[in-house]
Amino acid sequence: MRLNIAEVAKRAGVSTATVSRVLNNSPLVSRRTREKVLEVIKELGYVPNHVARSLRSKKTGLVATIIPYSADYVFNFPYFSIFIREVTKRLAEDGYHLLLTTEEPDDDPVRIYRTFLDRKIVDGFIILDLKENDERVKFLKDRMAKFVVVGRAKDCDDLPSVDTDNMSGAYKATSYLLDRGCRRVLFINGPKEHSVSIWRKEGYKAAYKKKGLKIEKSLILNGDFMETSGYELVKNFRGRFDAIFAASDLMAIGALKALKEMNRIVPVMGFDDIPQASMVTPTLSTIRQPIDRVGYEVADSIVSYLEKGEKISKVLDVELIIRESTEVD
Amino acid sequence: MRLNIAEVAKRAGVSTATVSRVLNNSPLVSRRTREKVLEVIKELGYVPNHVARSLRSKKTGLVATIIPYSADYVFNFPYFSIFIREVTKRLAEDGYHLLLTTEEPDDDPVRIYRTFLDRKIVDGFIILDLKENDERVKFLKDRMAKFVVVGRAKDCDDLPSVDTDNMSGAYKATSYLLDRGCRRVLFINGPKEHSVSIWRKEGYKAAYKKKGLKIEKSLILNGDFMETSGYELVKNFRGRFDAIFAASDLMAIGALKALKEMNRIVPVMGFDDIPQASMVTPTLSTIRQPIDRVGYEVADSIVSYLEKGEKISKVLDVELIIRESTEVD
DNA sequence: TTGTAGGCGTTATCAC
DNA sequence: GTGATAACGCCTACAA
């Protein structure tokens, strides 16, 4: 025997329309009818079929996050899992679920987005790893899709977004090093086109300006957030420097390794505050990002967008954490 | 204008049935008709609606993984992300997608499973963090749900499953320490009821037996896989020991910290080979688990189950990695 | 080889 | 307040 709305209706001696009304808390049902229907529902253990609802309502209750294939470091970022947990938790509060998937290599970066939109698999997207002139953003805008980005690109401030205050973070980090008397802070930034890199560079520069110091462009390098790139960039750097500020803890750790091999000691500052930061030797000074709140807020934002059409954007504060790596002398 | 199968049919001058046949590669379509239909499909940019298909076929193409709330360490396990990547990659090969979510705290552990089954949101499940007499397994079996477990419980060997050879791993680790002349290997196992803990304990014991040595039960402790538990267990241990084997790298790292504070040096072996293992000081000897293959195989298994009804189980080899932490003298 | 038509389970629009 | 009934978009007997 099929357990559907018709069966419930039959047993309760009402029409399917009435059952549906009860299910959707419509006020257009008398108290008595509602109670009777609820009783039957409970008795039969009836639960509405989500797919049928989706077909009717044209909403699947699914939000997709697609990890760019190039963005290995997203996965290597130990806090990624906390981010995911907070996202799914917030989504569930409104009955949404997270579809998580990865891009294929050598692939059109918007292929999966197109598939999900064409086949109407998801209601919205969360975009990670934002770049300037991001193809995905362009595509989704074009298709009038609903999405929220993590990060802020300068070319799309009309988008709902959640970001940490990368500029302020880089400013704090750099200022701290300058305050300690350092003058040539080697800045190992992330990839050039990434929105976080752009903001962090601004922060770095702002700190120099504030102190009235001249910025030396050759001190600004671009890594890929991974440990090896921090290691290599320091190892191969031919100029002078008296401190290092890396745009990720992993690169900072790589930098520390390189310094050790080169038998040099200078203050080193990271960014993120991943678990390793407090476990390596020396423990790493860094900028802590509230990754859990980023997860919560981005989920909150996409839900608001989907349910109420509200485009919410937030910038979250970051915190300077001083440990051993900057306290060398 | 709605773009659906009927519209395509109209434009191609055929019936919806024919279009459907073309879409599903039925041989019951003439070459000419097929080409014509495909042409129209291309021209209109028609793509079948996934939800409508799901309703008809009673398959959503979704596989759920639900992270137990208690299993924080799953998230703290840095390789979790690699696991997810491999899972989604393999699922996508057959058109499946991953629904990832977290349990709510203080909640019936099978609540989410029930919801997903009742509402028919997903086709199958991947179960992580398996325990003996696992409630979730019991529930899903009861409901005749399709699922694959990561791990092997002794009470359910009829389930499709993927596991690493935990027993062999623990055997290798313990044997290595015994071969070095250690006799009192403090074994910091995971939580008692976890299937991995049970297998690893077997391996530990087997190594002792093989050497004809007596097993000292007081040397076997239970932690929770996290760093602090390794630290505390060692710090508070009152017996004698001349080596440590921890069932996770994180606990091994905690143990190393405790030893350092206690001014003691003994060989320490971990389990997992997480990234930190090669970054801490001293670098950590450990048992490497092929987490990427676990991801691939578990996805492969659930797809085979869903598509062909085949229950596939696999046990994957692990590898002994010797670094500095065991080479102390 | 192709078409007709019913049904998957729900919701929304009408009437009553 | 409540009940028929027609969609939503697709697939599949069954008939032709």
Keywords:
434 Repressor (Amino-terminal Domain); alpha/beta; six-stranded parallel sheet; homodimer; four-stranded parallel sheet; 3 domains; DNA-binding; Rossmann fold; 329 residues; 13 helices; transcription cis-regulatory region binding (chains A, B)
Order of helices and strands of chain A: HHHHEHHEHEHEEHEHEHEHEEHEE
Largest contact between protein chains? A-B, 44 and 44 residues
* Order of strands in the sheet with most strands of chain A: 2-1-3-4-5-11
Instruction: Give the strand content of chain A.
Output: 5-15%
Q: Based on the structure given, which CATH architecture of the largest domain in chain A is correct? A: 3-Layer(aba) Sandwich
Instruction: Say what oligomer this is.
Output: homodimer
CATH superfamily of the largest domain in chain A: Response regulator
Largest sheet of chain A: 6 strands, parallel
Shape of chain A: elongated
Structural class of chain A: alpha/beta
